Amino acid sequence: MASSNHPPSHRTHVPLPSDSGGNPFDDEAPPVPIHIVTNASQLPAEFLNPSPEKQLVVGFDCEGVDLCRNGTLCIMQLAFQDAIYLVDAIEGGEVLINACKPALESSYIKKVIHDCKRDSEALYFQFGIKLNNVMDTQIAYSLLEEQEGRTRLPDDNISFVGLLADPRYCGISYQEKEEVRLLLRQDPKFWKYRPLSELMVRAAADDVRFLLYIYHMMMKKLNERSLWHLAVRGALYCRCFCINDNNYADWPSIPPIPDNLMVEGDAPEEEILSILDVPQGKMGRVIGRKGVSILSIKESCNAEIHFGGAKGPPDKVFILGPVRQVRKAAAMLRGRMMD
């Protein structure tokens, strides 16, 4: 793979599953370099030029100031088996991020990420990038819980710190994440400062260096039905906050139901994203006092319901899931608006 023009001053470990039975978190394993990228030439050629002959799986995340459509993307992290790349959007600017566009939109490069909604929104509105072919570990975790017979409460989405702590996937404590969160609360522009501090480099790398290990652990467990749900929901998550005027006609298509799952009486239902406009002043009725109204709707429907919240958009509700459940949720939400 290509490397930085300067020798990397930072290194870390990228744990990978091993058939030898060794401990993948053993720090005696050779560390890999962390490259701070300000020019596209520092990135691997096979990443910049996606090819069906050289398909890749990379850990992926973004950091920024108020990361959403109106915020600022500051760093884009990429984890490979033999290196981590911190793509510096502040120093490299639009030219650097646009050089990554083919890879981020490619179906030949799988991006492993935890909760891609806001990252996708930032990439779409700030750079016109339609994030595609993600493996979202938050979605995968929920599917594995369902697959193993455990019921999940509404809004009970695993955090990245919680996922890392789960002994089935990593079983490690990520205490530095809380340190960075505290610094972000004190100074929201934390990720904008240059040069990158030791803490910034370490925290950015830590957000992606475990993802390839988690990916392999999860993919071994997911059955064919869950894999289809994972692909579909990942695509819908990427679109979630990326509202456009053409109903996503220029986005990659949603993966169809595979023929081997089209079993009479047991075929999965098509899944969709529906965006509901909320008239001004009505959002309070939709949510209800202390969230009681929206919680009752979520408990009645097997669909995910998301709000833009403080980052916006403030006047819309995003509903994802099986067609009938999405329509049921939308009808109940409209009823709340009419009350």
Structure commentary:
With 339 residues, this protein is of the alpha/beta class. The chain has 2 domains: 10-239, Nucleotidyltransferase, domain 5, CATH 3.30.420; 269-338, K Homology domain, type 1 (Ribosomal Protein S8, Chain: A, domain 1, 2-Layer Sandwich). The protein has 13 helices and 10 strands. It has helices spanning 45-48, 89-99, 101-105, 117-127, 137-147, 160-165, 175-186, 198-206, 211-221, 224-239, 283-287, 292-300, 323-338, and strands at residues 10-12, 32-37, 56-65, 72-79, 84-88, 109-113, 134-136, 271-277, 304-307, 316-322. The strands form 2 sheets. The chain has a 7-stranded mixed beta sheet. Strands 8-10-9 form a 3-stranded antiparallel beta sheet. α5 (137-147) runs antiparallel to α10 (224-239) and α12 packs antiparallel against α13. The longest helix is centred in the C-terminal third of the chain and has 16 residues, at 224-239. It is globular and about 60 Å long.
The helix-strand sequence is EEHEEEHHEHEHHHHHHEHHEEH
CATH architecture of the largest domain: 2-Layer Sandwich
CATH class of the largest domain: Alpha Beta
The CATH topology annotation of the largest domain reads as: Nucleotidyltransferase, domain 5
How many helices? The count is 13
- Mean pLDDT across the residues is 92
The amount of helix comes to: 25-40%
Are there runs of 5+ residues with pLDDT below 50, and where? none
Strand fraction equals: 15-25%
Sequence of strands across the biggest β-sheet? 1-2-5-4-3-6-7
CATH superfamily of the largest domain: Ribonuclease H-like superfamily/Ribonuclease H
Biggest beta sheet summary: 7 strands, mixed
Number of domains: 2
How far apart the termini lie comes to 60 Å
GO molecular function: 3'-5' exonuclease activity; RNA binding
GO biological process, one term: nucleobase-containing compound metabolic process
Domain 3'-5' exonuclease: 34-223
Pfam families: DNA_pol_A_exo1, KH_1
